[in-house]
Amino acid sequence: MSAALIECLDFCFSYNGLTILDHLSFEVRSGDFLTVIGSNGAGKTTLLKCLLRIESGSSGQITIAGKALSDYSQKELATLLSYVPQSAEVMAPFSVYEFVMMGRYPYARPFVSVSRADREAVERALIQTGSEQLSDRLLRTLSGGERQKVIIAAALAQGARVMLLDEPTTFLDPKHQVEIYNLLVQLNRVEGITIISVTHDVTTALMIGQRILALKGGRILYDGPAAALHESEILTNLFETPFLFDHLAQMGTKVVLPKGFITT
CA-CA distance, 34 to 14, in Å (whole number)? Predict the structure, then answer.
C-alpha cells in the first residue's frame, strides 16, 4: 500500500466538454509543502476543488489516507482536508470568533451545544495565527491581512491534517504576504500540517515550497524539488515568457522575474 497521504492516479476533469485536468498522477506525503504553479486556466484551483469534492464528474482515482475520495462523507473529509479560499471571497457577517468556531462543523451534532474541545480548538487557532485580539471584531471590519489570518485560523480549528490554500496572498501588501507565508511555514514545519498551496508568485514558490507541481493546460509539466527549477527552461515553457534569475546573497537563494518589462 502507498504511504502517500493523497494520491491522484490518472485523474481527469472536464467541464462542458472542455478538459481542465488531463490524466494527473502525483502523490502528497504527510508533512509535504507542495506549491502548485501555472498560468491562468492551467487547472490549479480546479484541482483543489476536485480534492474537496466541490467539483464532481471526474475520472481516474483520488485516494486520501488510503481510502477512495468517493467513499468519504463530507464531514469525514472535512476532518482530513481544510480549505483557505482567496481572502476576497470571504465577507460573511460574523464576528471573528463566530467565524473561526464554524471551522468546528465536522464535529458538530444536532441539538448539542459547543463543547469545551471546540472552544479550546478555536482559542488555540486564534493564538497560533496571532488573531486572538480580533475575536470580537466583525469580519467586514478587518484588513485583508487580518482577514486572511482569521480564515487560516478557521481552517486550523477544523483540525484537518491537510490545508489547501488558493492564492493565499494575492490581495495582500508585502508586509502581510511575509506574515502569511511565515505562518504557513511554521504550521508546516512545527505543527506538521501538510500544505498544498496554489500561487502565481514564482519567487515565493521557489523560496518557501519544498516541492513544486507545475500545471500547463491541465497536464503536469513538472513535479519535483523547488530548487531544480532554478536552472531549467521549465518556467519559460510553463508561462511562455523568458525569466531572469538573480542570486540574493542575503537569503542564499535566487529571485525569479519575468523578462521583457519595458523600463523608463
Answer: 24
